[in-house]
Amino acid sequence: MALPRTLVIVLAGGAGSRLEPLTAHRAKPAVRFLGSHRLIDFPLSNARNAGLDDVWVVQQYHPMSLNDHVANGRPWDLDRTVGGMRVLRPFQGDVGEGWHAGTADALWRNRELIEDFGADAVLVVSADAVYRLDYAAVVDAHLAADAEVTMVTARHDGDVSRYGVVEADDDGRITGYAYKPEDPATDVVTTEVFVLAPDLLLRTLGRFAAEHDLADLGDDVLPHLVDRGTAREHRTTGYWQDVGTIAAYWRTNLAFLDEGAPFALDDPRWPIAGRPDRHTGARVTPTGEVSASVLCAGARVSGTVRRSVVGEGAVVEAGAEVMDSVLLDGVVVAAGARVRRAVVDEGARIGADAEVGGPAGDDDEAVGVVGTGCEVPAGDTVAPGARHPEPQEG
């Protein structure tokens, strides 16, 4: 029996406005995770580990922030003469030209390529969550059930009104779907992993494109397919976490610092691959003290680091203190500075004796942020939960 021909489409063009300022100069899928990886590494690794090697990456917002990392797909063994990775960017001069306005629009603009590929199933995934999933098993279940769409779902204990919310019967048939509802019916949400029948997908996209401008799949396409009665859920009980807000991003990074981390990124049975670093090993000097933390290649710690991520080439000078924080590549925390409960973006500098962040108080979402390449002057303070520099109005 021939294996199903599966096309994996990674939607990696999102602006990620709720992650600003981390996304001010990069696409959301290019944001670092745990210092050594980027968010796009998760879907690319899931595809390759599942043996699916026809992977298209749809770009839009700040594509250059992803290009160097994705390159030709080699870290995921997707650099093939036939098949492998294909990067799709907005273009002019033909059908489907221009910027896309959402996930459905992105697929419709690439309809000719999808049709020509001739897949048995199209797997559409986002690139803004941390998880492991056997995509091939989801495709197999989808085809075995003769479903028109299969939505991978998970229970979510946070604000589910930001997601597609699913109702399903005991047999896995989806009986209700609402996109970002004000009053969610359940706590079961889509993980933005969908398997779709290609012909029906393109016909449905064409129908709604003829009526109005397309945006996201959740607006028209998924509700329509649910109403047809052949939508199925594939419930994942493993770890899945969307990192679409600063607080969620910070929380998820720190969750992987504990001994009971959700999973190991370097598990040989299901590795989350990424582009190899180009630094020497991390170094802790005689004055340095580190506990429950991740130090990436090239990091140098002469101060105190507790339950934090120290990115590639980042420096924590003697007398500085970093706690419950995420420092991205090239950050410098100068002598005497304190960084607590914060995310500090690439190339930023925290001046001597400055203070960034602090206790959350009554607001668990209060996570301080210092933007890319910004400097907090010596002796200055960035209050808990504040942004530096402060966002400009208008």
From TrEMBL:
SUPFAM superfamilies, sorted: Nucleotide-diphospho-sugar transferases (SSF53448), Trimeric LpxA-like enzymes (SSF51161)
Stretch list, region Disordered: 355-394
Top-level taxon of the source organism: Bacteria
Signal peptide residues on this chain, from the entry's feature table: none
Keyword S-adenosyl-L-methionine: no
UniProt KW keywords: ATP-binding, Carbohydrate metabolism, Glycogen biosynthesis, Glycogen metabolism, Nucleotide-binding, Nucleotidyltransferase, Transferase
Pfam families reported for this sequence: Hexapep_GlmU, NTP_transferase
Nucleotidyl transferase domain ranges (all copies): 8-257
Assigned protein family: Belongs to the bacterial/plant glucose-1-phosphate adenylyltransferase family.
UniProt-recorded name of the protein: Sugar phosphate nucleotidyltransferase
